[in-house]
Amino acid sequence: MRKFFSPLVAAGLSLTACATVPSASPIIPAPGGQSRGMVSSADPRAAAAGAEMLRQGGSAADAAFATLLALTVVEPQSSGIGGGAFLVYDDGRPEPSTYDGRETAPAAAREDWFFVNGKPLTFPTLVPGGRSTGVPGNVRMMALAHRDQGRLAWAELFEPAIRLARDGFQITPRLHAALLRSKSTAGLSPAGRALFYRPDGAPKPVGTLIRNPDLAVFLEQLARRGPGHFYGGQNAAGVASAVSTAPVNPAPMTVADMTRYQAKERPPVCGRYRDFRICGMGPPSSGATTVFAILKQLERFPLKQLGPSNPQSWHLIADSMRLSFVDRDRYLADPDFVRVPTAGLSAAAYLAQRSALLQPDRALAEVSAGTPSGAPAVAAGLTADVISTSHFVAVDRWGEVASLTSTIESAFGSGLMVNGYYLNNELTDFSLVPTVDNVWVANRVQAGKRPRSSMAPTIVYGPDGRVRLAVGAAGGATIIAQVAKAIIGVVDWGMTAQQAIAAPVIFAPGDTVYVERGTALEAMAPALRALGHKVDVRDASFKANAIERVDGRWVGAADPRSEGAAISE
What we know:
Pfam families: G_glu_transpept. 33% of the residues lie in helices and 18% in strands.
């Protein structure tokens, strides 16, 4: 682990202009077709920002953070500095480093945080405004990981995002669709309405050039003054005021809530699936344990021989998912507040017991949580997952790999805007109720606690011990399904990462199995029903990104359902 945190952060580095961001393309190679480093992101302008850092000699961490900052500008509906993130980072050591930048509940939060007149509010009611907003963690997480893994000065990471905010970026079809769907949130703050909507209330059309001078100025200050500028002074006061005086659901947040926030380095969660080693982010993320459980429970079945065209493969994946999600719902929470049986949930013996429940010729009639070693007596709560978030991957010329998932939760988060960026609505990832049948819910809201997340940034190591695949996704709890499917595609079915990401998604978080409309899975619905599954067809709302190593070269992958791109150094 390197220590490259530059004293130039404190001194402040002048910002210089740079070339125009290239237009979107699935894969944009370096001149001559040689690729020393690469970034894959849900937006080509953000991927270009990361690639710019690589060309300047930056690390994968530098590239990932420049990508995150650029996404704050060009993908405001999904992620940004007003939210939180998890980073899984391989720098050649025996195990990857994992960094927790998840948001926290303010000190005033109590178990009845979501209650009015003794009853919990509904999820849609809670999303807009202050009560859903957690203390943002992205900037502290970036600073912590940059201290360990960065090569460039802190200020350099901001240059592409500052240009995009100052000089302007065009509204894409995906952003326009989000503005149409989420007007009540995106336009909740006057600043948001002025940026993205016309006087008649309609979203500005696709192709409109959007300039965000407030964000440009704030990013310049944050670049010059360092991460403490986010958690103190005018910005901290602005966040606390926006939450406390929100036009909808105002809730107490203080400057002290901002200043006390700390990002954390957590132990990774790793396990072997066939000849591959899977590593991801542990609690408060539920990604690593749940993805690994899905895979490990399937290990005894011949998925390679069955193949992706056989309904039996998808039946087994669905039931393995059902078993894994019921454990996730009960046990996963912030480990600083709850005893989470991470080792027990990932133990080969426990997952073999769970796997023994799977039947190749019929669906499980019902599923219930198991009892892994170290399991506390806790209950599953009432939660709701939303389709948002952004994942990106970066690799550098030294072979270091960053797999990072960032989110503000719902589209445009809570709708509250400070200094040109949206604040998250991450607290709605807590259970809305603190107890079930008089048993405490592990994922209940508490002061200073981090809500459970489905984000699943993952690194897969091949039989040779080297990184084979770095992957992650966006889309609430479907993230786990997308990542597990992508790994199965590469490991079991011999797909490229691009093919595996593009393959249809099956999602089974409970008794209903959801299959992607207009795909081969929809055609398999009758066969799945014949095996005993309750099947529903849903529209695609998926967004995954990956980079894989093939014959010594890095090859990028971006979800064809998105506007994503992979761009070489």
